[in-house]
From TrEMBL:
It catalyses: a (3S)-3-hydroxyacyl-CoA + NAD(+) = a 3-oxoacyl-CoA + NADH + H(+); (3S)-3-hydroxybutanoyl-CoA + NAD(+) = acetoacetyl-CoA + NADH + H(+); (3S)-hydroxyhexadecanoyl-CoA + NAD(+) = 3-oxohexadecanoyl-CoA + NADH + H(+); (3S)-hydroxydecanoyl-CoA + NAD(+) = 3-oxodecanoyl-CoA + NADH + H(+). It holds the Pfam family 3HCDH_N. Its EC number is 1.1.1.35. It comes from Lymnaea stagnalis. This is Hydroxyacyl-coenzyme A dehydrogenase, mitochondrial.
């Protein structure tokens, strides 16, 4: 399939392995497959992988409705079949990277777990394979130290929901070569994303602004100044945000948000923007992780 962007020249990436099939991994795998790449998506168990497959199918059905408003069933079916044909599922990360041009990691937001994974992948993947992390908050350079391929390592930070959000932050570390950076950027454009560059600083652009905003919303409620519902209504109708901060927290995942805030507060304990929140910690302890677990600040059916 032709990649019709001026950056296509640099897009040497045809086969992609996505490790982690949660909210982000399933979305990344979906958009990569939909733009003509051969994709293997990997997770720890068959059960998790099966859930990811069904959420990808649901998302594709929603896209198909929009893409083919007047089309017959046949056209829709062909699109779905083509995308799904590009996608395969696996629980064996080391085998899955063997023929991969690019590996995108989207597992739990924990430096040690990410390093352990990348160290194993580094030994299993061919020389040519580029590595990227979708981390929300961990410096790319810290993750890349687990490998011998810092020159072929970068950050590809997608946004949730990946099929709809148009932005991709592309991050390089000092060792990342120009060729690697250009390939990552071209891959993002081939996926239809608008790319921005940012230094390898905590939270890059979007999360450095968004996470303190969401944490401040929790502090406002912790002080008893307003309810989550009223804060959300206020930010949607008073500031034009598509979701209020509590809806967004539930959408992103409270565990992921807690990992981000905990990591930053450990690094900068005196930064008032990065203070851990008791309310958030309590919800996560009760396994109320947001939409993905059925309850967070709100309840979901
Ligand atoms: N896949 C496919 N289609 C989807 C979809 C998905 N996952 N989610 C929604 N849609 C479709 C719907 O079917 C609907 O289609 P129609 O227009 O044909 O009806 C359309 O998108 C709009 O959806 P909704 O009507 O349900 O809701 P909406 O208009 O509010 O849009 C939204 C949904 C795009 C998610 C919007 O609410 C939004 O932009 N929210 C903010 C999201 C955000 O800020 N994301 C960033 C989070 S931070 C992050 O990701 C970084 C990090 O590291 C933590
Ligand atoms: P998630 O909890 O929905 O999914 C994580 C998946 O990784 C799970 O299915 C888990 O089983 C799997 N996993 C964990 N360890 C693994 C391993 N060693 N090997 C294979 N699979 C493993 O989390 P998510 O929201 O998709 O976040 C994933 C990454 O993306 C995190 O680094 C997060 O910070 C980042 N991110 C999240 C968002 C968001 O809005 N949720 C946005 C951008 C980036």
């Amino acid at each position: 399939r032709a990649l019709s962007t001026s950056a296509a020249h640099f897009n040497s990436i045809k086969t992609v392995t996505v490790i982690g099939s949660g909210l982000m991994g399933s979305g990344i795998a979906q958009v990569a497959a939909a733009s003509g790449h051969k994709v293997i998506v990997v997770d720890k168990t068959q059960d998790i992988i099966n859930k990811a497959e069904s959420s990808i199918k649901k998302s594709l059905e929603r896209i198909v409705k929009k893409k083919f408003p007047d089309d017959t069933k046949v056209g829709k079916q062909k699109y779905l079949t083509d995308v799904l044909e590009n996608l395969s599922l696996s629980t064996d990360a080391l085998a899955a990277v063997k023929s991969s041009d690019l590996v995108i990691e989207a597992i739990v937001e924990n430096l040690d777990v990410k390093k352990e994974l990348f160290s194993a992948l580094d030994k299993a993947a061919p020389e040519k394979t580029l590595f990227a992390s979708n981390t929300s908050s961990i410096p790319i350079k810290e993750i890349a130290t687990a490998t011998q391929r810092k020159d072929r390592f970068g950050g590809l930070h997608f946004f949730n929901p990946v099929p709809l959000m148009k932005l991709l932050e592309v991050i390089r570390i000092p060792e990342t070569t120009d060729a690697t950076y250009k390939s990552l950027e071209a891959f993002g454009k081939a996926l239809g994303k608008t790319t921005v560059q940012c230094k390898d600083t905590p939270g890059f652009i979007v999360n450095r602004l968004l996470v303190p905003y969401m944490a401040e919303a929790i502090r406002l409620v912790e002080r008893g100044d307003a309810s989550p519902r009223d804060v959300d209504t206020a930010m949607k109708l008073g500031a034009g945000y598509p979701m209020g901060p509590f809806e967004l927290l539930d959408y992103v995942g409270l565990d992921t948000t807690k990992f981000i805030i905990d990591g930053w507060s450990k690094k900068e304990p005196d930064n008032p923007l990065f203070q851990p929140s008791q309310m958030l910690n309590k919800l996560v302890k009760e396994n109320k992780l947001g939409m993905k677990s059925g309850e967070g600040f709100y309840k979901y059916d």
